[in-house]
Amino acid sequence: PVTFSNVNIGTASVDRIIVVVSSTTLAAVSSLTEDGNSTTKEVEEGTQISNMQIRQGADSTGTTGDIVLSAGGPDMANAAIIVGNIKGAASGTPTSTNTASQSTDPASVTITVPTGGVAVVGYIGTGGGTWSNATFDLEVTTAVGILSVAHTTTAGSQTPTYTTGGANVSHMVAAAWGP
């Protein structure tokens, strides 16, 4: 397992859902806990080389927590996460999910966002770039590329797009939640 210690999980709230976008190489995450709380895998995109997931779990207390990833593979040293939270969702279960894997630029994925809801979108690829049709949240450089996360609150069918300026292999995951 790999532990990310004292990760900011935001302001405590009775309706807070912790959302974790993870990226690993040569291994798929088999379990992920946030401050000892289990999470549910909502969407996954991956190959034998790289894997991306969006997981969620309820946690109404605290502002930081340890994130522990477990996976069945040799290369967890390249694991990366981006953590956020959602408040006011009717349920932890997304209303919509989708994935995309491509070797063209720009990379995009389509997701349906409910009125008053939010979609979280993750990208992993070999080049850094910019988002359109979504608001950039955070980006980290990994040993194998860029892990970037954005969100959109625009209702309806949306196509968040990540443009690098050059073709590269990429994976995208998206999940939406409604009020």
Secondary structure blueprint with pairings:
Layout lengths: L1 E7 L7 E10 L3 E6 L2 E2 L1 E7 L3 E9 L5 E8 L8 E8 L8 E7 L4 E2 L2 E3 L4 E8 L4 E3 L2 E8 L2 E8 L3 E3 L2 E3 L6 E8 L2
Antiparallel strand pairs: 1-7, 2-6, 2-8, 3-4, 3-7, 5-6, 9-18, 10-17, 11-16, 12-15, 12-18, 13-17, 14-15
* Overall SS class: mainly beta
Supply the number of helical segments: 0
Radius of gyration: 15 Å
How many extended strands?
A: 18
Could you tell me the mean pLDDT?
92
- The coarse silhouette is globular
Q: Please describe the biggest sheet, giving its number of strands, its sense, and whether it closes into a barrel.
A: 5 strands, antiparallel
Task: Kindly state the percentage of residues in helix.
Answer: under 10%
Please report the distance between the alpha carbons of the first and last residues: 34 Å
